[in-house]
Amino acid sequence: MTCDEARGAFSDLYDRALSEPSLTALNRHLDGCPACRAEWTAFQRAVQAVTDLGGAEPSPGFTARVRQHVEALPWWQRALRWLFLPLHVKVPIQALALVLVAFAGLLLYQRSPELRREMEPRPFSPPPVAQQAPMPAAPRTTDEAPRASAGARPPVAAPKAEQAAPPAPPRSAVGPPPQARLESEREHDPSAARDEAKEVGKSTAPPESPRATGSAEESRAKTGEPGMAARPLLRSAPAPAGQSQISSVPPASADQLYSAALADMGRQRYDPAIGSLRAFIQQHPRDARIPDARMRLADAYVALQRYADAIPEYEALAREFPDSPLRPAALYRQALARLALEDRSGCQLLREVALRFPQAPEAAAARQALSARCPE
Amino acid sequence: MVDRARAGDMGAFEGLVRRHQGRVFTLALRMLGDRAEAEDMAQEIFLKAYRGLKAFRGASRFSTWLHAIASHHCLNHLEARRRRPLQSARGGGRPDRAGNDPPAPLDRLADDAPRADQLMERADLARLVQAELAHLTEEHRLVLILRDIQGLSYEEIAETLGLELGTVRSRLHRARMEMKARLTPHL
Predict the structure, then answer these.
(1) Does residue A113 form part of some domain?
(2) Of B50, B125, B177, which is closest to A70 when you measure between CB atoms?
(3) Which residues of A touch B39 (CB under 8 A)?
(4) Contact B10, A67 (CB under 8 A)
(5) d(CA A212, CA A229)
(6) Are residues A91 and A192 in the same domain?
(7) Which tens digits make up the pLDDT trace of A193-231?
(8) Residue B142 is part of a domain; what is its CATH number?
(9) Neighboring chain B residues of A8 at a CB cutoff of 8 Å
């Protein structure tokens, strides 16, 4: 063992932390090395001198002064301690209390029909930009009443009309509302509807446009909705009292069907309006009001947030009537409906509207919607 | 007693203060070299301990936990003192009632040393050791105090300071060797 090694082990030797072989080797070195032995002695004395400094006590009254300090905590610190400490006890208690309050609120909500009705969404909530979008003048016929015409703009429906309309149940984005579904199932048993449609179709209904039928069937296939062709026919059948609010205008009359649809739209009764419009489109495919009817039908679906049903109608309008003045509006609203379903192809449609119809009122709205909803 | 203090029992906390005040004050005094400063420091340490008491889970001994608070508080205080060179050059004390500057730490220690003639030599040695202790780096001084004055084991020091055992061992050895070099001419 060298002198450096020996002196490097002084601390362990002092604390008796050396292993037996190391201790033996170090003792042997110290026995034969007077310099290291002197160093060891000096080391021991120095450490002992430090140890002899010993402990000390603070002045009397120290504990009382500490207590004064502790009790002099600022109010906010004491409040925080009271609220949150100890964390492992108080945080779980507070979390449990929060859960209990939420549960109580849920129970209250479920057992209180008034509260539930208050919380239900309004019957119509169109896409935000759609409200700002100008509605191109639809082709009018002489029998179109002014009030019905106002009803063609569901997004800006008057509050009075909202009050007059019965509260609508909550609806999913695609499917028909539960209440409407029930009524539909009650009123339109598919088998009965098919039978009746066959029967009446043979006698009264004109042949349907193949393209229009295909579009409607695609739409129905998506939603699982029973064939709408049966609706006007069923309407003519006697319905239980108070069950059907659909207009009693004979279905075979185009004008009456269309007027009834417009009246229902004006009253925000979108389900019967949809039935009338579909019947009108199917029974009178050559009528000049077909583009307008398709637009209104699609708008009625949008009013019910049935965007998936609205899109094929807008598509059909744009495809079947490429020269219609309604085409930019149909494309624009189709774009908004797609965006409402998180379908990004709506952005492409908006670009198309802005590029292809720069003079149309929808172009500016499309550009706005593009910047707001389709960031690059 | 720790559990009762954690639950907010001030009497229990006072008991903890009484039990540990000597060790906390000693650590502060040996680190700072000034009684008044050390006493203020000890009060702050107990205040800090009181505020952190709820977080003390008992994973270590209370004394080890308290030593950790005291050690870090002393190191922080010395760091802050280094940034105020004028004040520390005057001994770090406050003016007395007469407006005179307080005595330097060594003088204050001398005031508190035993005055009996037979103890004078020992008091002088204590003043000397304390003065030389102040020349060590703070890290070496702290380990030396914790081991040779407070009597903590290597493991306790490592836990208190959050160091590896080997680091504690090497720091302690260097501190002792430096004290040997400084004190040998006087011993």
Answers:
(1) yes
(2) B50
(3) 58-59, 62
(4) yes
(5) 12
(6) no
(7) 444 444 444 444 343 443 434 444 444 444 434 333 333
(8) 1.20.140.160
(9) 173
